[in-house]
Amino acid sequence: MILRRNNAMTTTVLGSHPTPVSRQSHARKDFKLWAQKVASKFELKAAQFLELSTFINVGRKLNATDLRLRIWQQATSYKILNGIEEIKVESANTKTAVQKVTSGLKGRFQLSTDQMMQVAITCKDMLVQAGRTKYKTLHVDVEDRLKSCADTLGFQNVFGNPVHEQVLRTMIKKECSGIRSKFHTLASHLLSFDGLMFIADCIST
Q: Which domain of life is it from (predicted)?
């Protein structure tokens, strides 16, 4: 800024220009804002964004185009590395799941005597519960009941393991099928009026 003092003892501002220091500070601020947008676009971590900011300070002598290109390349590298880490995590989770299933297969899981007895009791109770009109989905309702009361009924070691759940599901279907068949036969013999045969028909639907 240039000042000129006139005869009336007043000061006139002839003009002002930004200093090199202020221009550099403004440029760094613009670069950091741009780097922040790049980091957001690539979903970079906070530490990675800080490293991009360091790039700006270190490369202050580079021209704008070159510096932006270097920042973009570094951000791209971080994005790729983050993607690789995510793949590793997913692979580890998949490996754990496979090992869990394999372990169940190798162990040839079987329900205990108490668990099989509980399945039979639950099937019978739910077959004759008030309001039941659908019987072909009985096995689904039984499994839901056992799952909701797993801790109480002793099925903690079943639910959460796909192999164990499949063993239980097979047992439930077999038990429900047998009980439903017996109940259908009994109902058919006991009902003598045609108007009441719909009860037996319901058991078949």
A: Eukaryota
